[in-house]
C-alpha cells in the first residue's frame, strides 16, 4: 500500500493510529478503524483495498478520484468507497478517521463512491474507535461502538458532491483537465474541436456518457472546485477566481446544486461553529 509507515509496537499491541492497513488487514475483525494524519497537499496515488472503506475527514478537504468520477469531500464529511475500487485521494490539510470493512458485513454498501454527512454522534464514535487496539474486544463497549458505527453509516443519505467522468479516454481527458483548472472561457465548441467532432455530435456523445450536457457538467465541476478554495479564501474571493459575476451569484448556484451555501465551508464559519479539530504528526497511511 502507498504511504506505509511502521507501527511502534506491532499490529496487535499498538493503537490503530497512523498505521498501514497492510499491517492489520489480517486481524480477524470485520471492521478495522484507523486514524491517519497527512501533511498538506499529500496525494495517495491510485490504489485499491480488499475491504470497503468509510473515509472521514476530521479536518480539511479530500478529493477522491476513481475511473468513473470525482468526489469532493468537504470538511467533516465522509465518503463510502466500495471494496476493490481503484481510487486516488488528494489530501488538503486532512486528518482522517477510516473504517475498513469486510464486504460480507455490509451487503448494503453502495456500489459507487458516496459522500455523506457525519453528524456529531457518528463523529464521536469514529474518534473513539480509532483508539481501539487492532484486535479489540468484540464484547462489551468496543464491540458495541463498532456495531453502532455501522448502524449510523447505514442511516446516512448521499450528498451530491461529485461529477461523473466519461469512460471514453478522449472525453475523460477533457474532463480531468477541466477539473484540474476550471476555466469559464471553455465552450462546447472548443471541446468539440479537441475531440475532432461537430458540436452537435460531441454534445450528444457527452450526454450519453455522463447523463449531462457539457455545459451543465462544467458548471457543476466549477462549483465543486469552490469547496477546497473556501478553506483559505472568502466567498467573495472564490467567486472572482471562478468567474462568477458576484458573491451572490456563486452563493445562489452553489446552494442550488448542493443544498447549502458556500459560506458553510469557509474557515471563519467553521471556527465560529466550534469545529472539532485534532492535530497530530504528519504521517503516511492508507486511504
UniProtKB/TrEMBL annotation:
Q: Pfam families this protein is in?
A: AraC_binding (PF02311), HTH_18 (PF12833)
A GO MF label: sequence-specific DNA binding
Key words, A-Z: DNA-binding, Transcription, Transcription regulation
- Record's signal peptide: none
Ranges for domain HTH araC/xylS-type come to 169-268
Positions of the UniProt region annotated as Disordered: 263-287
Keyword Flavoprotein annotated: no
Which InterPro entries does the entry link to? AraC-bd, Homeodomain-like_sf, HTH_AraC, RmlC-like_jellyroll, RmlC_Cupin_sf
Whether Transcription regulation counts among this entry's keywords is yes
Q: What is this protein called?
A: Transcriptional regulator
Give the species this sequence originates from: Streptomyces filipinensis
Amino acid at each position: 500500500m502507498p504511504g506505509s509507515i511502521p507501527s511502534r509496537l506491532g499490529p496487535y499491541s499498538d493503537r490503530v493510529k497512523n498505521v498501514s492497513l497492510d499491517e492489520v488487514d489480517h486481524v480477524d475483525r470485520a471492521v478495522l478503524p484507523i486514524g491517519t494524519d497527512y501533511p498538506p497537499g499529500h496525494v495517495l496515488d491510485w490504489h485499491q483495498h480488499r475491504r470497503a472503506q468509510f473515509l472521514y475527514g476530521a479536518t480539511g478537504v479530500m478529493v477522491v478520484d476513481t475511473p468513473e468520477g470525482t468526489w469532493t469531500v468537504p470538511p467533516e464529511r465522509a465518503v463510502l468507497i466500495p471494496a476493490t475500487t481503484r481510487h486516488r485521494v488528494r489530501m488538503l490539510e486532512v486528518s482522517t478517521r477510516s473504517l475498513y470493512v469486510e464486504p460480507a458485513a455490509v451487503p448494503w454498501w453502495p456500489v459507487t463512491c458516496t459522500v455523506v454527512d457525519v453528524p456529531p454522534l457518528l463523529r464521536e464514535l469514529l474518534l473513539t474507535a480509532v483508539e481501539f487496539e487492532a484486535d479489540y474486544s468484540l464484547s462489551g463497549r468496543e464491540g458495541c461502538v463498532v456495531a453502532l458505527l455501522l448502524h449510523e453509516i447505514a442511516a446516512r443519505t448521499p450528498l451530491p458532491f461529485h461529477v461523473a467522468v466519461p469512460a471514453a479516454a478522449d472525453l475523460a481527458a477533457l474532463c480531468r483537465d477541466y477539473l484540474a483548472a476550471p476555466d469559464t472561457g471553455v465552450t462546447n465548441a472548443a471541446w468539440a474541436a479537441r475531440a475532432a467532432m461537430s458540436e452537435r455530435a460531441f454534445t450528444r456523445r457527452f450526454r450519453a456518457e455522463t447523463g449531462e450536457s457539457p455545459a451543465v457538467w462544467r458548471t457543476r465541476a466549477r462549483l465543486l472546485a469552490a469547496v477546497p478554495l473556501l478553506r483559505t479564501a472568502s466567498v467573495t474571493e472564490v467567486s472572482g477566481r471562478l468567474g462568477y459575476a458576484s458573491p451572490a451569484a456563486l452563493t445562489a448556484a452553489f446552494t442550488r446544486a448542493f443544498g447549502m451555501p458556500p459560506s458553510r465551508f469557509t474557515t471563519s464559519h467553521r471556527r465560529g461553529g466550534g469545529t472539532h479539530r485534532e492535530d497530530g504528526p504528519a504521517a503516511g497511511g492508507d486511504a
